[in-house]
Amino acid sequence: MATQAKKSSFSGGLGFVLAAAGSAVGVGNIWRFPTLAAKHGGGLFLIVYLILVLTFGFSLLMTDIAIGRKTGQSSLDAFKTINKKWSFLGKLTFAVPSIIITYYVVIGGWILKYMVSSVTEFTATANSDYFINFITSKTPPVVWMLVFLAITAFIVYCGVEKGIERFSKIIMPALFILILGISAFSLTIKSEPNADGEIRTGLQGFLVYVKPDFTGLTFKGFMSVLLDAMSQLFFSLSVAMGIMITYGSYVKKDVDLNKSVAQIEIFDTIVAFLAGLMVVPAVYVFMGTEGMKAGPGLIFQSLPQVFNAMGFAGRIIGPAFFVMVAFAALTSSVSIMEAIVGACMETFKSSRKKISIIITIIAAAAAVVVCLGYNVLSFGVTLPTGATGQNLLDVLDYVSNSLLMPVISLLTCIVIGWVVKPKWVIDEVESSGAKFGRKKLYTVMIKYIAPALMALLFLQSIGAFNFLG
Ligand code: PHE
Questions:
Q1: pLDDT above 90: percentage of residues in the chain
Q2: Tell me, what's the pLDDT at 469?
Q3: How far does the centroid of ligand 1 lie from the alpha carbon of residue 100, in Å?
Q4: Domain 13-468 carries which CATH code?
Q5: What is the reported pLDDT for 443?
Q6: 112 in contact with ligand 1, CB cutoff 6 A
Q7: 355 CB under 6 A from ligand 1?
Q8: Distance 24 CA to ligand 1 centre (A)
Q9: How do the domains of the chain map onto residue ranges?
Q10: How far is the centre of ligand 1, averaged over its atoms, from the C-alpha of 239 (Å)?
């Protein structure tokens, strides 16, 4: 029988916080947050989001991390340890990173491609067909995906402390400095005068971003802000996918979880805010608010046009931007792969090296299929949310983020809130000797509010509110 290797761990609180923040900060912060803020009247969305982070987001994140540290296991086994009857929840949770990895590395490949092309073919990338031509081509997206996957796999292969932690400790501060620099630059830009002699400035764009716009706000409108903020938060904090459970299982017992969770939340929120500060004014100045496309269109189509319009500065800002996005995406994909590898190492009692290699091969095969979803396997379906012309990547994203994640989160709240009771988590947090500051809030959130919000989110995902228009 193979002897069970000593459980790996992060060297301390900082390593854990940076690795977890690395998971949390990803393309969601950079392309989804600014788009939603622009769509929902800037400041209003920011306020709603902030309140949710401090209450709802905090409770979900704390729950996942505490489950991991208390059981010392990743999702697949952790729920079984909590309660035998709930072991199915572990399997369901494990399904999420297994689905996400197959398309996240494809997007990672697109980012690497743009990182290089923004230097070598700067002007060509500004044509919005460039993106469509690239993703629908047969070989290049597969090659870039494989490069991205190989880097991810290498970091996971090197282990928790020597791979994930060491990498996050370098990348996360670098990412922060880059985003700070680019967003500061974004505020200083201005457009050429248009036909009416009008000039748009970065500062005006800043106001579009932060000033709450209540004009025409109805109850229905507010609900849509709330639901969007909630689903964004949930995706952004990487909860309900076993990632934070796995990372939590690598945290030493003397680490103050209360403090770590607060730091992760703050890091993730600041990066999302700065991403908005960088994207919204830049797009506003050069393209007006129409340039604020949702999703990949924003970073692969609108922003290259913006960089092009900046002239010489764009040749520096553009590549710097894609380097930053690549960092954000890499630390996230590392966490997705680690959630799978960690769980398989426990289940098959096998070595990290062996499992990493096997998972990489399977992920590569699946990701090739996702790439083909844009050419030979393209089908273009309509989802229950009403989105039309969706391909394999969008369908997988819908299943994992819109269907599975709210259900998993709802069930997790039930297990913790009602089966083992919130004290189970509170005791774990306080076991390091620290005080659990938001204890009362946590209890109310996990028993009542979070499950209700999750149910609402799930109903929205299956199109139950479509009749509202
Ligand atoms: N939380 C990351 C983001 O905001 C995305 C992510 C998704 C990370 C899935 C891990 C797993 O972009």
A1: 76
A2: 56
A3: 9
A4: 1.10.4160.10
A5: 97
A6: no
A7: no
A8: 6
A9: 13-468
A10: 9
